[in-house]
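Pasting as-is:
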Amino acid sequence: MGERVAVVGSGYVGSVVAACLAHVGNAVVAVESDRGRLEQLASGQAPFHEPGLDRLLRQTLDDGSLRFTDDFGLAMDESDIVFVCVGTPPGPTGNPDMSAMQSVAQLIARHLRRHHIIVTKSTVPIGTGYWLGAMIEDLAGTTDADGLFSLVSNPEFLQEGSAVQDYLHPDRVVLGSDDPAAIRRVAEVYRPILEQKIPGDVGGRDPVPLLQARMTTAEMIKYASNAFLATKISFANEVARLCDYVGADVTEVTAGMGLDVRIGGRFLNAGLGWGGSCFGKDLAALVGTAAEYGYQPPLLQATMSVNNLQRQAVVAELLRQLKTLRGSRICLLGLAFKPGTDDLRDSPALDVALRLAERGAFVTAYDPMVTVVPDGHDIRIMPDPQRAATGADAVVVATEWPQFLALDMTSLADVMRGDVFYDCRNVFDPGAVARAGLRYVGIGRPPVRHPVTSVLDASGPDAAGQLQGPRASVVAVATDAPVSSIS
């Protein structure tokens, strides 16, 4: 029999946590204060696109292992372990907005009747665990924390587009606390995941490592992990700029790098750069933490700078190709920040679209999951790629949705006014594009002077949601393993 668990906050992270913990045998009650979202979740439908989540919600709601409520006191009464999954978006200064976390502390203090383990799942500044504990103590009018609650940091490493699989089959589970008994209790919540005994799975997976640490160490692991992944992407884009100068092909360079086991190919694709709700926020928070101690981290600052410059570089290249952006018609294929999601938060694709519109371009776009953009943005969403490209002077591949590779290049060229095909994700075969009569432009790739044959990994998107694209031509001997790498 599993543990009695409450999940506070049913946004992106909270709804995945609640459904997955219920799926592996825990009795979960999830708290959501927004009435519309509460009704949607209670009907088994997530308020955002995430593969597999709706099915898991319906299954756990039907078998009674999960239910949703807006009654915080009820959730506390019917749980022993509380996972805090509220949002911590960047505030005006770039540091996380902790107002939701502060509200949760007030609610916890008001409803503490017996010992609870409070697990911080939200991405929070380093030291938040101790801050949260002191706040609950103060609000509850006691300094006897051990008698009322224990604190555990359990950072999340979910990737949009594969969050359910990431949670059920993680690379590691990190638990940070100064209370070993609390860590052991939370580890019981994760036992089926740690042992990889997931209901409905065929088995055969290795056990998942459990890392136990101090609370601040666990909080730092989250920030350091995201900072490193963002740095790999920015590094690839920096190398791509150098490849443009020397005439090398960055897809072949990163493929060669990725075959080195010390480096690995994931998160090493040059392109539009990283976006989404995590990398930028977490990097800014880490830089902000460093500033509190009088330290300016040059590598982290460069990671952010390179990423911002990459978006402007795409606009500059389109200006070079088209000679003017004012009055040009530009089609963007993809708007979400990555495939497998409809999330537009800090989307490089949307950012480029807005920069183009500000320069006087007429922008049309097609994305398989995005049907609307925020109010006030002059971007026309079209129902299919052909309609979006009709009359376009340039087509820009801005999000690497796998289905884009099935596009008929000749038909696309026929409906365009111009001939620029800007592959900002380096996923198309330049030779195939050129044979359709289009002028291929890539990120860090030399101009096409003759037909090119590339290796395309048939595995599709990787765990980061990025598509395996053209890579170096490699002669493989006595192996069926793909030679491509991925960022």
